[in-house]
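Lab notebook page, bench 4
Experiment: in silico fold of construct C2
Operator: M.H.
Input chain length: 157 residues
Purpose: comparison with the prior construct
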Amino acid sequence: MDIFITLLLIAAGICLFMVEVFITPGISVAGISAGICFIYAVWHTFTHVGTVAGFSCIAIIAIGCIAIIIAFMRSKTLDRLSLKKEINSSTGSHAATLVKPGDEGIATTRLALVGNAHINGHIIEVRSADGFIDEGTSITVWRIDQGAVIVKRAIRL
C-alpha cells in the first residue's frame, strides 16, 4: 500500500508539473501543488518503505520532470508563445518631415534636454542644444539629426 501511495503522489505531481509547464507557465497553484506532492512522496517513501526506495523515488521524479521539460522544448508550444513580428519603425521620423532647419516655434513644455514644442502648427518632440529651455520660450530649429529635431533658443535682435 505504501508503494501505491508513493506512485500515486508521483503521478499526481508529474500531472500537475505538466499543467504548470504547458498550460500555466510561471509559479502558480499547479506548480506549488506539484512540489508538495513530490516532497510528500519522497518523505513518505523514506519513512515507510526505506532508503533505497526513497532515493529511487527522487530519481523517478527527476527523470520525469526532465522528460517533461525536454518534451516542452521539442513541442510547438514555444513557437506559439514566441513573438514573430519585427519592429521596423523608428521614432521621430515623422516629425522630421514636418519641420526644417530655421523654422521657429514655442516650447510647450520645459525642455530639460527633451520636450515638446509647437512648430509650424504641429506639436512635436524636440531636443535642446542649449540645455534647459523654459516653457513658452521662443525656439528655432537648429538641425535635424537621424529623425530627431534639435532646437536652440531663438535669438531676437
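Observations: Strands lie at 104-107, 111-119, 122-133, 138-145, 148-153. The chain has a mean pLDDT of 87.
Next step: discuss at group meeting.
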